[in-house]
Amino acid sequence: GIFNDLGMTKEVSNLIKENNELLETKNALNVLKDDLLVKIEELSK
């Protein structure tokens, strides 16, 4: 029924939100990683 559909919609949007947050975290970590790699390269010159 309609209540089931609403529940599913909420679940799906929660999953999408969670996924977006994970992607943001992953991107932030990648930026940090690249930054660290550059610093390491500079140090090993």
Automatic annotation (TrEMBL):
<dbReference type="InterPro" id="IPR032486">
    <property type="entry name" value="JIP_LZII"/>
</dbReference>
<dbReference type="GO" id="GO:0016192">
    <property type="term" value="P:vesicle-mediated transport"/>
</dbReference>
<dbReference type="InterPro" id="IPR039911">
    <property type="entry name" value="JIP3/JIP4"/>
</dbReference>
<dbReference type="GO" id="GO:0008432">
    <property type="term" value="F:JUN kinase binding"/>
</dbReference>
<dbReference type="GO" id="GO:0030159">
    <property type="term" value="F:signaling receptor complex adaptor activity"/>
</dbReference>
<dbReference type="Pfam" id="PF16471">
    <property type="entry name" value="JIP_LZII"/>
</dbReference>
<dbReference type="GO" id="GO:0019894">
    <property type="term" value="F:kinesin binding"/>
</dbReference>
<feature type="domain" description="JNK-interacting protein leucine zipper II">
    <location>
        <begin position="6"/>
        <end position="44"/>
    </location>
</feature>
<dbReference type="GO" id="GO:0005737">
    <property type="term" value="C:cytoplasm"/>
</dbReference>
<dbReference type="GO" id="GO:0005078">
    <property type="term" value="F:MAP-kinase scaffold activity"/>
</dbReference>
<protein>
    <recommendedName>
        <fullName>JNK-interacting protein leucine zipper II domain-containing protein</fullName>
    </recommendedName>
</protein>
